[in-house]
Amino acid sequence: MLACASAQAAPAVSPATTPAQAGMLDVATLAPGFSLDMRYAGSDNFTGRPVPGYDAPRCYLLEPAAQALARVQRTLQAQGRALRLYDCYRPVRSVQSFVAWAHDPADQQAKPRYYPNIDKSRLLDGYIAEHSGHSRGATVDLGLLDCREDGCVEVDMGTGFDRFDPLAHTDSPDITPQQRRNRQLLLDAMRAEGFANYPMEWWHYTFRPEPTPDTAYDFPVR
């Protein structure tokens, strides 16, 4: 999901207009085999349309977080697995568009797939917030692939990405033992390189300590 909710005060917005100015790297260039499924650059997301601020399906993170994620990828590849990336750096303008969407009760096209068991008005409580950790350039949404046979297949995590539901809580008691093992495998790999999980979303991780915890960014993803 997008959640990455934060009740903190709004961080200062950097004047950076490019990844280089912000000190961010394109993660996919740092290690082979990343699977890019950048949902907000297209229509396959909970809003049903491309999100403002996403002009290309790229994954940018601040250099320390990007290098750490590349190390996770290399470790998993040695085990016959790989990472699928759903979202990385998120412009402030994109977060603002999510909040506007959440305040529009008429737009319910994505409810059956993304929040069938939660009223849309409740999405602002823990799932969608005015300020996102993604905008600080050290948070990533991702899943796991099994590449031990021919090709790579998505690992069953119990829900899809961006599912607004208690079933997506990392430690949900209602998933199968295999799904729990899959979540734990991802959790262990990410923790080993300094990433902390957001408990309401199995896919959501933030690099600690954050390189710029008081700064957000708003350049478009291109």
TrEMBL record:
<protein>
    <recommendedName>
        <fullName>D-alanyl-D-alanine dipeptidase</fullName>
        <ecNumber>3.4.13.22</ecNumber>
    </recommendedName>
</protein>
<keyword id="KW-0224">Dipeptidase</keyword>
<dbReference type="InterPro" id="IPR009045">
    <property type="entry name" value="Zn_M74/Hedgehog-like"/>
</dbReference>
<keyword id="KW-0645">Protease</keyword>
<keyword id="KW-0961">Cell wall biogenesis/degradation</keyword>
<feature type="active site" description="Proton donor/acceptor">
    <location>
        <position position="201"/>
    </location>
</feature>
<feature type="binding site">
    <location>
        <position position="134"/>
    </location>
    <ligand>
        <name>Zn(2+)</name>
    </ligand>
</feature>
<keyword id="KW-0479">Metal-binding</keyword>
<dbReference type="InterPro" id="IPR000755">
    <property type="entry name" value="A_A_dipeptidase"/>
</dbReference>
<feature type="binding site">
    <location>
        <position position="204"/>
    </location>
    <ligand>
        <name>Zn(2+)</name>
    </ligand>
</feature>
<comment type="function">
    <text>Catalyzes hydrolysis of the D-alanyl-D-alanine dipeptide.</text>
</comment>
<keyword id="KW-0378">Hydrolase</keyword>
<feature type="site" description="Transition state stabilizer">
    <location>
        <position position="90"/>
    </location>
</feature>
<feature type="binding site">
    <location>
        <position position="141"/>
    </location>
    <ligand>
        <name>Zn(2+)</name>
    </ligand>
</feature>
<dbReference type="Pfam" id="PF01427">
    <property type="entry name" value="Peptidase_M15"/>
</dbReference>
<comment type="similarity">
    <text>Belongs to the peptidase M15D family.</text>
</comment>
<keyword id="KW-0482">Metalloprotease</keyword>
<keyword id="KW-0862">Zinc</keyword>
